[in-house]
Amino acid sequence: MKRKWLAVMTLTLVVGQASASDTLRCGSQLISLDDRASEVLQKCGEPVSRDALGYKRSANRREEFQVEEWTYGPSNGMYQYLRFEGNRLRQINSKRGN
What we know:
Helices cover 28% and strands 47% of the residues.
């Protein structure tokens, strides 16, 4: 019985962590993956920093997209790192600051 309960709890934690990185709360607003940079800017305000990371080629190799990382925080000791590819939010990462 304990093993079954432990397996269910582990699975619940893994699923919870996966979905947490798909959205970010900015005040009373939520941003999600695939949002436009202008929507994120409107909801979250100006980031602490914007870093141009380079360019990424599309799957068909005919287009290049600019890749940027925006940093927000610290908020309660956490920094939020938003990765944009071609003006669309592709990744949200959080890291505790020093």
